């Protein structure tokens, strides 16, 4: 189920990204010969109008094959290469633009339909098999005291539990107007080392305008953090933290254990990540094509299509090699 969920997420991100290129190209009057989801041999395809829509074997990418980008159709009057410079730049940037838009819409949906965690010390979710469930705690219980320390909000309560990994603690809770004492031994979070008992907060739905504001703010903050992380990795201030498809599948599984909101938030973060990474000036990515178009604007004439495509081909081969290496490392880390 985790693999299926991850493939669904990958497919959504690919369709949205390539759909951005597709819609922008159609709007610019460019002939799109094929819209493909996935890479490798075609499993299914159908032609509607002038465009072939195909589903390919490996769901880790996609592409739009436009007239005028390579091959024998460089003289097509509706080809990509025959369009004004700004139109072409818009078509290339539209993929990442759609990824950013998707992230904002997902955040807005989560805030408006599912809500945000309320900062009140009332239990909204109890995970089966965890210390809280084993001790008999239920959704709706209000935690008043953690080890003789009164708590007034969720943040303070969690902070106190964090400090006691694999230790016995005593809680005073309120249930149906009555107070009672509960003792339990916390678990240790394998990733952070913090104490945990397996509970989640209650959620509060937000109005439309509040959700839009929060969604835009969330997308901005995460984009800023991603850029900061990339800069720190490039400058050597932090060690590179990169995962491939196998690592992402594992992260999807972890997010799924905490509910739909976490899966959707994770998908939105991936969408922002995909949008930003594609804008980097790396051969075979959209950012590299924007660099070539920028150079064309400065020089007043385009760079040879053959030379540009050769550079993208080399970049694509290097990216595939890096992807294989990262996947191998993820497998070693998971099974070691």
In brief, what are we looking at here?
By secondary structure, the chain is an alpha+beta fold.
Describe this structure in words.
The protein is α+β, with helices and mostly antiparallel strands. The protein is 51% helix and 21% strand. Strand 9 and strand 10 form a beta hairpin. Helix 1 (2-27) packs across helix 2, helix 1 packs across helix 6 (245-256) and helix 5 (208-234) packs across helix 7. The chain is elongated, with a radius of gyration of 25 Å. The two termini are 23 Å apart. The mean pLDDT is 87.
Task: Count the E strands.
Answer: 12
Number of helical segments with 4 or more residues? 9
Principal-axes shape call: elongated
Order of strands in the sheet with most strands: 6-5-7-8
Q: What structural category arises from helix and sheet content?
A: alpha+beta
| Helix content, binned percent | 40-55%
State the low-pLDDT regions, or none: none
**From the alpha-carbon coordinates, what is the Rg to the nearest angstrom?**
25 Å
């Amino acid at each position: 189920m985790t693999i299926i969920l991850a493939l669904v997420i990958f497919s959504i991100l690919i369709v949205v990204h390539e759909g951005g290129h597709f819609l922008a190209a159609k709007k610019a009057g460019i002939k799109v010969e094929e819209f493909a989801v996935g890479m490798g041999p075609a499993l299914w395809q159908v032609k509607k109008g002038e465009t072939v829509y195909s589903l390919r074997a490996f769901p880790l990418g996609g592409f739009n094959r436009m007239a005028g980008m390579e091959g024998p159709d460089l003289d097509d009057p509706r080809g990509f290469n025959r369009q004004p410079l700004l139109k072409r730049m818009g078509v290339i940037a539209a993929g990442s633009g759609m990824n950013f838009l998707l992230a904002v819409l997902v955040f807005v949906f989560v805030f408006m339909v599912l809500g945000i965690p309320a900062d009140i010390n009332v239990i909204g979710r109890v995970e089966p098999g965890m210390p809280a469930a084993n001790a008999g705690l239920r959704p709706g219980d209000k935690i008043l005291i953690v080890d003789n320390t009164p708590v007034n909000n969720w943040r303070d309560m969690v902070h106190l539990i964090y400090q006691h990994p694999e230790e016995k603690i005593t809680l005073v809770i309120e249930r149906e107007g009555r107070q009672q004492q509960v003792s339990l031994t916390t678990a240790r979070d394998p990733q952070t080392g913090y104490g945990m008992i397996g509970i989640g907060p209650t959620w509060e739905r937000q109005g439309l305008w509040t959700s839009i504001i929060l969604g835009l703010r969330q997308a901005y903050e995460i984009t800023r953090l991603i850029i900061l992380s990339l800069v720190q990795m490039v400058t050597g201030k932090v060690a590179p933290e990169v995962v491939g498809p196998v690592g992402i599948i594992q992260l999807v599984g972890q997010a799924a254990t905490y509910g739909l909101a976490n899966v959707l938030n994770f998908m939105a973060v991936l969408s922002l990540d995909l949008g930003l990474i594609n804008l980097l000036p790396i051969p075979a990515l959209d950012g590299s094509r924007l660099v070539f178009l920028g150079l064309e604007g400065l020089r007043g004439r385009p760079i040879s299509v053959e030379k540009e495509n050769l550079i993208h081909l080399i970049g694509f081969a290097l990216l595939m090699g890096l992807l294989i290496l990262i996947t191998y490392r993820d497998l070693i880390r998971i099974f070691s």
